[in-house]
Amino acid sequence: LTNKKFHPSPTSVSVDGWAIGPETLTIMAGPCAVETEEQLLAIAHAVKESGAQFVRGGAYKPRTSPYSFQGLEEEGLKYMQTAKKETGLRTICEVISEDAINAAVKYVDMIQIGARNMQNFQLLKEAGKSGLPVLLKRGLAATIDEWLNAAEYIIAEGNPNVVLCERGIRTFETATRNTLDISAVPVLKEKTHLPVIVDPSHATGVYSYVPPLAKAAVACGADGLMIEVHNDPAHAMSDGPQSLTFENFRELSAELQPYVSLA
Ligand code: PEP
Ligand code: MN
């Protein structure tokens, strides 16, 4: 179902009137975690002004430590819905359980399966049944074939609306949080008809590396980007060091404008 051999032309995934695919450059931006309503609304307005079509924000956070902030859960989803009402942006949230999916369908436009759950096959099936478009991130140490098989699980449940997101993989290199596998973009473009976006924020863990890799991703054929943006990165409850300020994000968006019109 993911294989280009049986579906040669590229697929676009439609989310509330916006087509994610080769005809557009999709920008999803927002905080790692939804922290407060005020924070989310401020960020949503800022990223909208810079040209993003989606606001992202985690309400269920799959944190490495159980003692780190775990997210606002359903309350956070409600703030996402408010952000959509105020800005018109489409919304995307990560889900980590069947309960989270059942809540997400009430409040957001698209769900995300995170790297840590890429091979949570039960969750993939539930995401397939949810009827919502799904952003499927690459697992921390997943091969491209394993990743495509994960997408296959979702589509096999009757949900063809899957977008892939390269977010870096584990390597021996420690200078960046992960290593962005930029070659995944052309490899996927040859293997699958599904749209592919790139997340340089989780790939690098360092805000200053985000703009150059965002541009590299677009230059090599990515259909979009997911970028973490925060009103006050120094005090973010998660992933502050990789978050762009409003000003940084505005600059990057301006630099991407020529690609937006080419897409
Ligand atoms: C995220 O997007 O907030 C996230 C946790 O990303 P990943 O699953 O890629 O680590
Ligand atoms: Mn994050």
Automatic annotation (TrEMBL):
<dbReference type="GO" id="GO:0016832">
    <property type="term" value="F:aldehyde-lyase activity"/>
</dbReference>
<dbReference type="GO" id="GO:0009073">
    <property type="term" value="P:aromatic amino acid family biosynthetic process"/>
</dbReference>
<keyword id="KW-0808">Transferase</keyword>
<dbReference type="GO" id="GO:0016740">
    <property type="term" value="F:transferase activity"/>
</dbReference>
<feature type="domain" description="DAHP synthetase I/KDSA">
    <location>
        <begin position="19"/>
        <end position="256"/>
    </location>
</feature>
<protein>
    <submittedName>
        <fullName>3-deoxy-D-arabinoheptulosonate-7-phosphate synthase</fullName>
    </submittedName>
</protein>
